[in-house]
User: What shape does this take?
Amino acid sequence: MKIKKMLVVLSAITLLTSSLAACGSNNAKESQPTSSPTSTSTSTPAKEEKPSGPLVTLTVEIFDRGIQGQPDMNNNTWTRYINDNFGKQNNAIVKFVPVPRSQEVDKLNVLMAAGEAPDISFTYDVNTVHRYAKMNGIMQLDDLLAEHGKDLKNYLGEKVLSYGKYNGSQVAIPAKRTSLAWSGTFIRKDWLDKLGLPLPTTRDELYNTLVAFRDKNPGGVDGVIPWGLATTGMNYNTGNLPESFWEEQPEKEFVTAESWGWLRPGNKEALKFLNKLYNEKLISPDFALDKTAQQVDADVTNGKVGFFSANWDYPLRQKISEPLKANVPEANYIPIDTFTNYEGKHKKIAYNENGINVIIPKSSKNAELAIKYLDWMSSPEVLSFLQYGEEGVNHNIVNGIPQVINQTGDNMQTSYMNLDYTLVVNGVELGDPEKNIKALAASAPGLEEVAEQSYKINTTDTYTLYYFDTPNESKIKFGKTLEDMNKQMTDKLISCKPSEFDNLYDKMVTEFMAAGGKAVMDENVKIYEAMQANK
Amino acid sequence: MKAVLDIEANATINRKTRKNNFIQAIKRDYLLYLLLLLPMAYMIIFKYAPIYGILMAFQDYNIFQGISGSEWVGLDVFKFIFEQNSFYRALTNTLVLNFLDLIAGFPAPIILAILLYEIQFKRFKKITQTVLYLPHFLSWIIIGGIVYLLFSSNGMANTVLNELGLGRIEFLSDKTNWLIMYVFVGIWQNAGWGTILYLAAITGINRELYEAADIDGSSRLRKIWHITLPGIKPTIIILLILQVGRMLSIGFDRPYVMGNSLVIENSDVISTFVYRVGIGSGDFSQATAVGLFQSVVGLVFLVTANYIAKKIGEQGIW
Assistant: This one.
């Protein structure tokens, strides 16, 4: 009984506080109902214009990235814009539900199980979407989209939307991804120059360069790290080195092997090469213990690292570029394309055109409003404000290209181009691919050239993950376990003793296949064949 | 006939007095019972009420339909678990880590308690005690960070070793070393806190025994061996039984924070397994089934340990 009473009181408080926030008074924080009396009386006129029924609260998931100095996720420039321009018109309050970025799926699972998932939930993990769809826990959106999402449909297009289908019906709305580069490799140009070395163009040249970094320590630092690495799965990676070892494979075999390389011809040599580097002290010694990549970030920004591979824009990111500039002003990371394969190409993975998957749980009572929200968001002016904010405050226009001004506090964007708030797009959206890339480069003041070059390198010779139009049951079941195993295997094989390598590789791959790897691949083959037959 | 009536009358009187006694007992100690209410509520809400969730272990649990709407699958979930190699790995690791903790970690607080008790200088004793308790209040996340800073290959310990010309030791990435570190850090955190019960038990020992021993001229070690240790034996046995009963349950944070992908073969335990399949993959049926298995085996251990303790003439926990 008590619990019920508590619930009533709680919901009353929430309603009260959230209705205050919606009145758009800038100083009334949601969490401070004490400041209520004054702000209600001042902003009542706005309410009187809309007497149509009680306010609806639309809940929207938001990633909490735990960035230093970030504003209240529910009360900042962006949420106020959303509430003023969408909320008021629809007699609704848009309320954001923070979810820690690193526990994306874990937290969503719990919210879904409790029936408390936000009206607009999302995940990058397609597997999770399929699992929910299979359990019949998320809405089918075809009709809703047709009725309330015309602009949204036009904006995303058939291709992007097709990534959100499960057995033919639309269960997720994928965001449009405007920049497709995934990962990139970077080297300290100033170190190369100091040693009089050219840009390495093959694996062997890179090896010699790394040895030179180790032996000659061109930066004169304590504990030079020729190749900086963290545990697998944390931004830092081995780039397209494995791809350069892979031999030719028929398309069917290539695409059905998933993103793992374990059975690909040549993959063993790739890891052996990395193992050699590690044992010759060319790779971060404790990379496998660096579970948050904090150590390697510190090493990079302290100028100890000569070469690394991470997201294509990693050295442009504020958290790297600014401390690096302060600590080691002469440090100059430039993108390179070193890993050449048997055909002389620099094969590397790129993203498909889809980004985050927005889903609406069955428990939601505001599905229509949710679609309207996304539809509203897909209009150019809304996107432009959410990505670039106000001219003179958040950006300046130079040569027709907006230049971002980094902000703190209220105006701060906690994610790149505010992508956590703009759920329909991932990357700059100025309505023109050329312009987008220019604008992308402009987001790294002082490093525009590096950005443009890196983007160019990392969108050439690319392949993308194959999209299977039918969900893979085995993958739903074993996916997470395999993903974890995959990371552990990579870490282990890189750091084991060279004499143990061969046995360990074979043993672990056998285990991996037995733990579900084979089942997933077999099912992929079936789906692939069915898709080919239907063509 | 009369006798029968008498007996019946007696019985009613008895019943009446018993009822009266009961009411009286409540009246007399109602404040104590009131105090008991809160812990009772805690036990019912947090320990008994969730038990119905065990049903999930026998279902293909659908997070959106709940227990009432999910399909029953009998023992399929258990079959699936027992077919997985990673489950056996988690099971073995749990047993190994707990066993090591038992061997090395269990005697530590006993020894420490005796040492503390023998300290004559009161003030020093108090300070030592406080310092020893402190690590207990640190979260494993913090401890994990400290361990990493001290023992990683560029950490303080290795830097010192290296400067002394002794070479580096892979404290955290070599399996055996990692096991030692795991146990050692566990002792560091918990030994101090564990002394509280033993110290209380030691204080309960009759002082006259020590005085008698003094008069007989026995040494300090003799006194510890013949008076202190036998005096706290019942406490030791009970704590031992409890610890054995917990053989299969293991905290989540210690192995999770201390572990890394190079020692995963030793650090993946049941709790991390449950976290991965249950929360990570959203397979609540599997997680529940493992939890149930864990409890059942734990109960068997507990009962056996208790039985053995009673057999060898000690007091059990029931």
